[in-house]
Amino acid sequence: MNVVVVESPAKAKTINKYLGSGYKVLASFGHVRDLPAKDGSVLPDQDFEMLWEVDGASAKRMKDIADAVKSSDNLFLATDPDREGEAISWHVLDMLNKKRVLNGKSVKRVVFNAITKKAVLDAMADPRDIDVPLVDAYLARRALDYLVGFNLSPVLWRKLPGARSAGRVQSVALRLVCDRESEIERFITEEYWNISALLKTPRGEEFEAKLVSAHGKRLPPRAIGNGEEASRLKALLEGATFIVDSVEAKPVKRNPGPPFTTSTLQQAASSNLGFSASRTMQVAQKLYEGVDIGGETVGLITYMRTDGVQMAPEAIDAARRAIVDQFGERYMPEKPRFYSTKAKNAQEAHEAIRPTDFDRSPDRVRKFLDADQIRLYDLIWKRGIASQMASAEIERTTAEITADNKGEKAGLRAVGSVIRFDGFIAAYTDQKEDGEQSDDGDEDGRLPEINARENLAKQKINSTQHFTEPPPRYSEASLIKKMEELGIGRPSTYAATLATLRDRDYVTIDKRKLIPQAKGRLVTAFLESFFTKYVEYDFTADLEEKLDRISAGELNWKQVLRDFWKDFFAQIEDTKELRVTNVLDSLNEALAPLVFPKREDGSDPRICQVCGTGNLSLKLGKYGAFVGCSNYPECNYTRQLSSENGGEAEGVALNEPKNLGTDPTTGEELTLRSGRFGPYIQRGDGKEAKRASLPKGWKPEDIDYEKAMALISLPRDIGKHPETGKMISSGIGRYGPFLLHDGSYANLETVEDVFSVGLNRAVTVIAEKANKAPGRGARGTPAALKTLGDHPDGGAITVRDGKYGPYVNWGKVNATLPKGKDPQAITVEEALALIAEKAGKAPAGKTAKAKAKPKAAEAKTTKTVAKPKATKAKAPAKSKKG
C-alpha cells in the first residue's frame, strides 16, 4: 500500500480513481500548521526560529495521515506545484518525522500540472525530492511577513488609533491606490479643442480628417488651448480648398498574446467578465480540481497559480490540431509559437494556464458547468488556442490632406484600418479597462477609396471643446497589472492582498474602482512619513527578487532575514520617541487635500469657520482620526475625516447640537448631532437618551422635525396580522430595513418603506418571504441557498442562511461562514475546511482531557505549542552582527 498526500479532498477522490486500489490518497486540507497569530512566533534573537502551531482539525487530519503511513510501503507528497505546495509537503514530512512513523520508508515528492489521468501517472513515474531552496524561500517570506505585521501594526495602534494593520506587500499596494487618489486630487483640468473636417471624395463618399498642422507647424495633441484659437483655425478651414497630398496603405501584422498567467487571467476576467480577483481564483480552482463530465471527474485546466507563459509540447500540438478542426488550415501558422516568461524565478515559472484538452471546446462542456465556470473556461480556452493561431493581417491606410485658404495652409490626416485576415482575432481579443488606451490601431474604421492629388469637397468643419481628465482610479485588474510591472508580490498573493485591503476598510470598491478610505490614506501617509523605505516600490521589488534568488539556491534565507531585521528593528525602536504632535503635523501636510478641502468662498480651509481664529488640524481619538479646532474646549468644532470632499459644511452644521423640536409624548428635546460614527438623532439627554443613526443616503441638512420623529420612534407598529393576530412592525437593523412578525424577519426594499408600508403590503411581503423557504421543516431549518456537492464521507453539503448569518451544513454539523464571505461564492473546498474545523472541536460533555488530545500529541513531537520565553522580538545581539 502506498500513501499519497494531496491538498484537496475533492482532488483526493479523483486521484485515487486514477491510481487504483494499491494507493490511499489523503487530503491535508491545505496547510497543516501555521505561525500562531501572536507576538513571539518568530524569534530573531534565536536566529529566526519559527514556532509552529497545529489546530484541532489539522491535528486530526495529520493523525489520519500518520496512521496510514505506519502501514504503508511508500509515501508520495503530491501537494500543489508551487511554493506553497512545496511548503505543505515539507510541513507534512517534518511532522511525520517527529511522530517517528516513517521508519526508513521511501518518501518522494511528485507534482502534476493538471488533474488528468495521464498527468498524474506521468508524475508518479517521475518523482523527486522536496525542493529545499523553494521551502527556504517560503520560510523567508513567511518570516518577513510575520515580522513586518507583528512589529509594524502595534506602532500603528499606538500612534494612529483606528488603524488595523500593516503588511509588507499589503501596505505597498495600498500606497499605489492612495498615490493615485492624490494624483487625481492634484490634477488641474485643462481646456483643449479638436478640429476636424467632414470631406467628400469625387465619388461621393464621405470621411473625416483631423487637423494635425497649421501655418507650417505640427500641432501636438491638445495644442489648441482655447476657443479663440480654435475659431481662427476653424475659419481657416471654412474658406479652404482641400487636396490629397498622399495616400499610404501599409500592411500591419498583429500577433497573439501568450496563454494566461495568474495575473493576466485575473485582469482579463475583470475586464471581460467583471470578476474580482478572488472570484476568478475560486472558479479556476474548481476547473483545475475537476468537474463531473459524463460520470467522470476531469480537471479542465492546468494549475492556475503560475507566472509561466509556455505550454507543453503536447499541448501545443493539440492546440494546432484544434485550430485546424475549429477554424481551418489557414488559421494555423507554419511553425508553433513559443513564448518566454518574464518571471525572475524559473523554479516557479510553471506551464501557463490552459485547457487540459483543447478538444473540449466550451460548447462541448457547457452543460456540465455552472454560469461562472463556463464563462471563465471559455476565456481560458479561447486565449490558449489563440496563442497558437496565425497573426491577424491589417491594412492601415493614412491619407495626408492639405487645406489652402488664400496661401494660409493647414494639414489634415485621415486614418483607417481594415482587417484583411482576422487570424487569432477569430478566437480571442482583449477588452480594455475603463480609462485604458487601446494600442490596437484598428479602431479607426474603414476609409473610402482616396487617391493622391485629387480634390475633396468640404461638407462640414467641426470644432469640439474638451477638458483633460485625471488618471482613472485603479480597478483590481489594473492594480494587479501595476504590481506585476513593479515586481511587487507574486501571482499567488494578489487576490489575498486585495481582499485584506477591503477587509481592513482601507479601500472600498465602487463600480469596480478601488477608492481609498480615510483610514487607508492615514495609514499610507504615516508609513510614507516614518517608514519610508518599507513602502518604497523599489525596496519591495528588490526584496521580492531576493526571495526569488533564495528559491533558486543563490542566497541564504537566514542571511536575508538578518539583513532586513537589523535595519527594520532600528526603525521600529526610533518610533518609540515619536510624539503624537509630530505625527499630526506630518499627516496634516501629507493629506492636506483630504483634511482641508477647498471652500467655495475661497477662504482659508485651515481656519475654523465657527470661531474664526482657531486652526483646524487632525486629532486622534479612540475610534480613529477626526478634524478639530485648536481652540478646544472654548470651540468644540469637530468633523469626521471623510474621503469625500465637502465634509466641511456638514461639520459646521453639526458642530453644536441642532434643536429640531420637542417630542409631544415625552416632552424631551430632539436634536441632530455628530458623533464618531456619523450624524444621529437624539431624544433627551444623559445615559438614558434614545439615539438613532441616520440611515444610509440621508443627509444631515435634509433632516427636519418630521423625519427626526419618524426615525426616533422606530420600530413602527403597522397593524395586526389578519391570521395570527400578532403585531407587524417595521424598523432599520444591521442588515437594512425590515418587517418583524412573530419573531421572523422579512426585508424591505428601501428605508422609505419602513415609514410608509401599509398592512396589506406588509402581509404580502411576509407571505412572499415564507414561500421562498419551502424546505423549512418542523423545527424551522432554513432552506438551502446553494448545494455544493457531496462530502467525501457521504451526504450533501449545503449553504444556508440562519438567524446569525449564513453557514454551511453537512448532516448535524453547522459551520458559520467567515465575516464578509459571500455565501454564493463559497467553494466546496472552503466548506469542507470549515466543516472539518467545526467537527474537530469536541462536543459538549467531552472531558477537557479528551478535547486537548490532538494538541497534546503534537506537543510531544514538536515545539509548535511551546510558549516562547520572549514575547517580543529583540534586535540581534551585537556579537552576531555582520
Automatic annotation (TrEMBL):
Q: Could you state a single Gene Ontology molecular function term?
A: zinc ion binding
Q: Which residue intervals make up region (Interaction with DNA)?
A: 165-170
Q: Give me the ranges of the annotated region Disordered.
A: 841-882
* Domain called Topo IA-type catalytic: residue spans: 131-572
Q: Catalytic residues? A: 303 (o-(5'-phospho-dna)-tyrosine intermediate)
Please provide the Gene Ontology terms (biological process) for this protein.
DNA topological change
Which family does the UniProt entry place this protein in? Answer: Belongs to the type IA topoisomerase family.
Residue span(s) of domain Toprim = 1-117
Record-annotated site: Interaction with DNA: 31, 141-142, 145, 157, 305, 504
The residue ranges flagged as biased composition, category Basic residues, are 869-882
Keywords from UniProt, A to Z, are: DNA-binding, Isomerase, Magnesium, Metal-binding, Topoisomerase, Zinc, Zinc-finger
- Descriptive protein name: DNA topoisomerase 1
- What does this chain do? Releases the supercoiling and torsional tension of DNA, which is introduced during the DNA replication and transcription, by transiently cleaving and rejoining one strand of the DNA duplex. Introduces a single-strand break via transesterification at a target site in duplex DNA. The scissile phosphodiester is attacked by the catalytic tyrosine of the enzyme, resulting in the formation of a DNA-(5'-phosphotyrosyl)-enzyme intermediate and the expulsion of a 3'-OH DNA strand. The free DNA strand then undergoes passage around the unbroken strand, thus removing DNA supercoils.
Subunit architecture: Monomer.
Write down the EC number: 5.6.2.1
Give the organism's phylogenetic lineage. Answer: Bacteria, Pseudomonadati, Pseudomonadota, Alphaproteobacteria, Hyphomicrobiales
Listed GO cellular component terms? chromosome
Top-rank EC class of the record's enzyme? isomerase
Tell me what reaction this enzyme catalyses: ATP-independent breakage of single-stranded DNA, followed by passage and rejoining
